[in-house]
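Section 4.2 – Deliverable D4.2 (structural model, holo form)

The reporting period included a commitment to supply a predicted holo structure for the target in complex with 5'-deoxyadenosine. Inputs used:
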Amino acid sequence: MNKLTELINKLRDTHTLSIDEYEYLIKNRNDEAVNLLREYAIENRRKYYDNKVFVRGLIEVSNICKNDCYYCGIRKSNLNCDRYRLTKNEILECCKEGYFLGFRTFVLQGGEDGTFTDNFVCDLLESIKKNHPDCAITLSLGERSKESYQRLYESGADRYLLRHETADEFHYSKLHPSDLTLYNRIRCLYDLKEIGYQVGCGFMVGSPHQTTKNIALDLKFIEEFQPDMCGIGPFIPHKDTIFSNEKAGDPDLCCFLLSIIRLIKPNILLPATTALGTVRNDGREKGILSGANVIMPNLSPLSVRKKYALYDGKISTGEESAQSLNKLKKSMNAIGYEVVVSRGDINKNNL
Ligand code: 5AD
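Output (structure tokens):
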């Protein structure tokens, strides 16, 4: 057996590899390895989720952010960004429409906007839960204190997405100004887990300065942290950032990593991200066929969708929008998957 096959079998059987082994797998991958990993990934996913794909309605609540992450289009120093913030009522309206369309999870994502105080978000969460008690709420509002996460949890938040961005401190410092640290990011992730949230981490594939070793460290971190969810998507340059001339991440590598992450944690909830759908027309289908099982259509009001531009060319009004759920169902059926309407919590027992 060649070394690649050996490593892939080992990953399938033990759900762990060393950092050097991950690095080898990524560096030396070939078509055969891609296909074998994908086959194992699908087999593992089937044990927990059959052929089901979960959908989450993504509501981009604000593009105002106090942070200045070098890669991100809504970073505070981007003066060309047309800023907006949804009101409580607008967010409740999005949920109402989403509920009508069939969504049972709402993801409230936004920049680190100081207006989203604990009091504001708690009140919002309580209203959403009152209107839609059968729905799960995911927050993606960045770094906050443990006390804040605790209060939001008590007001009804079920899940929290906070990508770790990179598990390598030096790489972290190449992507963020010095007031943002990997240490605090990881602290947040462990706080969230301890409180009881279903927690998601994640990173960009092909972000500037990223090495294969960095990706291997990301995979090791995922192994150790055991997140319930993991968001990965290709880096895509944004014209108003210092990385405007960098090239976009490789969607095929992203799909390869989706298969690996599925094998690291077979019951993980793994989205085929909007970024993957942006760099490739069939990105989301390819993501599902590589081991992903979640899609997050855009449910933000049409008037703000273009403004939530983390990167250039972000798709937002075509088939990836929440309003096109029927088209999404059809495109998933066409590749043998079924979009289901349910909260879609993590499954801790085999089917
Ligand atoms: N390309 C791809 N993904 C990006 N994100 C931010 N900027 C970009 C970009 N230019 C991702 C980050 C963040 C998530 C909300 O979006 O990983 O955590």
